[in-house]
């Protein structure tokens, strides 16, 4: 998971870039990430709360309300522009799964592969959903600061991890593949070095040989 230092640096970087950009979509992305690595996941959760009919789509008024309720500051013209960008078929609605995919910070194929590899390792049943039982024996809690100082048990750390993915008032103790990617796209944005990102993922999820690929290719990434 993202470190406090990584989150702090990400917030600072995004706030600085926010003052420079004029692109409405980039403004929205940077505002989300200025909240830390979980920013993209957070706005996804906001739209999930609003999706009463489980249609996975929202109209302009719902989109505008979601932006407001999440606490983002955008002028009316920018909100209209962003909605129009994602309403590609001009139907008056946008698929918020597709919206989130395009809102995620860009990642190279190696980082995407690591994230997908980690999720596949977690998803023991192959049903596209991860539970606390799946996490046991896979997610390495021993380097977590609160485990090291004895404040939290392994069970508490795993529960906290799952809780970070849940929708408020609708906690189900499960992580979907999209939720996992949304979270780690934010973590990725907080880490400039491909080598460090690879080592972090390998250590957290016990991914055999993932970090060695960089060495074999001779990449100078750290």
From TrEMBL:
Keyword line: Calcium, Metal-binding, Repeat
Keyword check for tRNA-binding: no
Domain of life: Eukaryota
Domain EF-hand: start-end pairs: 38-73, 74-109, 110-145
Pfam families named in the record: EF-hand_7
MF GO annotations: calcium ion binding
PANTHER family in UniProt: CALCYPHOSIN, CALCYPHOSINE LIKE
Protein name (record): Calcyphosin-like protein
Organism of derivation: Mizuhopecten yessoensis (Japanese scallop)
């Amino acid at each position: 998971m993202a470190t406090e230092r990584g989150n702090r640096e990400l917030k600072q970087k995004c706030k600085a870039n926010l003052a420079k950009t004029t692109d409405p979509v980039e403004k929205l992305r940077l505002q989300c990430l200025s909240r830390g690595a979980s920013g993209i996941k957070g706005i996804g959760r906001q739209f999930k709360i609003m999706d009463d009919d489980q249609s996975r789509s929202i109209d302009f008024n719902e989109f505008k309300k979601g932006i407001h309720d999440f606490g983002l500051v955008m002028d009316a013209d920018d909100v209209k522009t962003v909605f129009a960008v994602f309403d590609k078929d001009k139907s008056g609605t946008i698929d918020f799964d597709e919206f989130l995919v395009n809102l995620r910070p860009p990642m190279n194929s190696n980082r995407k592969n690591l994230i997908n590899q980690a999720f596949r390792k977690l998803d023991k049943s192959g049903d596209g959903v991860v539970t606390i039982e799946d996490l046991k024996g896979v997610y390495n809690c021993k380097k977590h600061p609160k485990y090291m100082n004895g404040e939290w048990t392994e069970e508490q750390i795993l529960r906290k991890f799952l809780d970070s993915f849940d929708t408020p008032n609708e906690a189900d103790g499960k992580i979907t593949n999209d939720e996992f990617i949304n979270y780690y796209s934010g973590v990725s944005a907080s880490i400039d070095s491909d080598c460090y990102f690879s080592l972090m993922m390998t250590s957290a999820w016990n991914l055999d040989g993932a970090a060695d690929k960089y060495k074999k290719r001779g990449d100078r990434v750290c």
